[in-house]
Amino acid sequence: MKIKLLILDVDGVLTDGTKVYDKDHIPIYKRFKCKDFTAIKRFAATGIKVIMISGDSWNKPMAHKRNIDFYCTRDKGDGLDKSIWVDEFEKTYGVPKSEMFFIGDDYFDLSMFEKLKWTACPSDAPKTIKEAASFVLNSRGGEGCLVELYDLAVEKEVVKSATMEEVIKLDKLEETSKEMQSNIDDVAILSEN
């Protein structure tokens, strides 16, 4: 197996699927695991293009700040069917379906599991998804799925192990990292005064 494009569902994979809403039912909070973002950089450092696909456009700014291409299923008009994007991914990234790997967790991801050969899901995915997945991870959604997937890919020799230098280089390019550095600089200025 050779992976050139890693397609990530967000909610239920990078998060535990929980959304916290305000009184007007506007989402205000999701919880991500930083180690998964490092795993994304480790995949990218090995030459694999990593993209995100979600039915929730709320995730777009997060992906943008981390230099990850983002696709919202609701943009296509068919709502939640992620598989309608696969042909476009082939054209956009020049990657055949046989070299795409998808990780998803919910019933709305089933079409991706049916269309692609290489797939994975968290351990808390519904039975239908687990039965369709190439790999069922031990991790639950939001609890390090991408860390586990990266380690599995290295173990199976599907990807080479990324170097620290390659990962740091990618990290420095992220807007999120620049914002964190800015916060450190702001604290240093305040502590000098």
What does this entry look like structurally?
It is a single chain. This protein has 193 residues and is an alpha/beta fold. Helices cover 40% and strands 16% of the residues. The strands form two sheets. A six-stranded parallel β-sheet has the order 5-4-1-6-7-8. Strands 2-3 form a two-stranded antiparallel sheet. Helix 5 (127-132) links the parallel strand 7 and strand 8. Helix 1 packs parallel to helix 6 and helix 1 (34-45) packs across helix 7 (164-173). The longest helix has 18 residues, at 175-192.
Q: How many separate helices?
A: 8
Strand tally, please?
A: 8
What is the typical, i.e. mean, pLDDT?
A: 90
Across the major sheet, the strand order is: 5-4-1-6-7-8
**Form type:** globular
Compute the CA-based radius of gyration. 17 Å
Biggest sheet overview: 6 strands, parallel
Structural class: alpha/beta
- Could you give the order of the helices and strands? EEEHEHEHEHEHEHHH
Unreliable stretches (pLDDT < 50, length at least 5) are: none
The residue fraction in helices comes out at 25-40%
Strand content: 15-25%
Q: For the terminal residues, how far apart are their CA atoms?
A: 57 Å
Summarize the structure.
With 193 residues, the protein is an alpha/beta fold. It contains 8 helices and 8 strands. The longest helix is centred in the last third of the chain and has 18 residues, at 175-192.
Topology diagram in text:
Layout: E1 5-9, E2 20-21, E3 27-29, H1 34-45, E4 49-54, H2 60-65, E5 69-72, H3 86-93, E6 100-103, H4 110-115, E7 118-121, H5 127-132, E8 135-136, H6 145-155, H7 164-173, H8 175-192
Parallel strand pairs: 1-4, 1-6, 4-5, 6-7, 7-8
Antiparallel strand pairs: 2-3
Helix pairs in contact: 1-6, 1-7
